[in-house]
Amino acid sequence: MQACDAAIQKVQTALSKLDKLNNPADMQKLIEQFGPSAATPEGLAKIKNVMESTLRGLEYTKSAGGANLDLQDFASGATSGIPATAAAVSIGGGKVIFSKDEVQRKDISSLAETMTHEMSHAFAGTKDHWYLDGRGNHTSTYRPGGQERDVAPNAPTFANAVDNADDIARAVSKLSA
After folding, report:
1. What digits encode the pLDDT tens for the residues 60-108?
2. Which residue in 118, 55, 67, 126 sits closest to 89, CA to CA?
3. Looking at residues 5-29, what average pLDDT do you find?
4. What is the full DSSP assignment across 131-155?
5. Residue 154 pLDDT grade (very low, low, confident, very high; cuts 50, 70, 90)
6. Dihedral (C-alpha) 137, 132, 129, 119: value to the nearest 10 degrees?
7. Cβ proximity of 54 and 11 under 8 Å
8. Do the beta carbons of residue 117 and residue 166 sit within 8 Å?
9. How far, in Å, are 11, 23, 28, 59, 170 from residue 128 at the CA level?
10. Could you tell me where the DSSP H helices lie in the chain?
11. How far is Cα 96 from Cα 122, in angstroms, rounded to an integer?
12. Integer Cα distance of 27 and 40 in angstroms
């Protein structure tokens, strides 16, 4: 539950900064993450809405004592349809399965970002239009069954970025740093 607590704190901090948005550096972080539409009142409202839904999911998870979370060994291939390299997967109904390997090797901050990503799927309805590498570059994403696909069908528009779990999780991490 430490990762959940850390994720809650990070999302609360990010939302607090969105409410004030008096720091030009924070606005620049949003523009870098989502594009220039993030600087509009409508854009900010959309980002805030997704973060608020994600926070509600994290708070639900904490209040339920993590009953909606599970831990499985993806690397063994025993979890059907989940890529062995996945960190976690939202399976619907607010349930999230985490990879044992990821939980063992990641620090709390990294797990908090993964939890934010997955809770944005489960409670804000975000998708995986693309993933972001450590530098924020778009990488491939996966189809059900673990098959890689190119990100080309999912143009990096503002609408897709706000609907992309990795962009929401990364924005939370950047704003809460």
Report:
1. 999 999 999 999 888 776 666 777 777 888 888 899 999 888 899 999 9
2. 118
3. 94
4. EE-TTS-EE-EE-TTS-EE-STTS-
5. low
6. -160
7. yes
8. yes
9. 19, 29, 23, 22, 13
10. 2-20, 24-34, 41-63, 100-105, 108-124, 158-162, 165-176
11. 8
12. 10
Q: Which amino acid is residue 81, in one-letter code?
A: G
Domain 2-126+157-176 coded CATH 3.40.390.10 = yes
Give residues with Cβ within 8 angstroms of 133, minimum separation 6: 139
Report CA 57 to chain centroid distance, whole Å.
12
What's the residue count for the chain?
177
Q: Do 44 and 18 touch, CB atoms closer than 8 A? A: yes
**Using only C-alpha atoms, what is the Rg of the chain?**
16
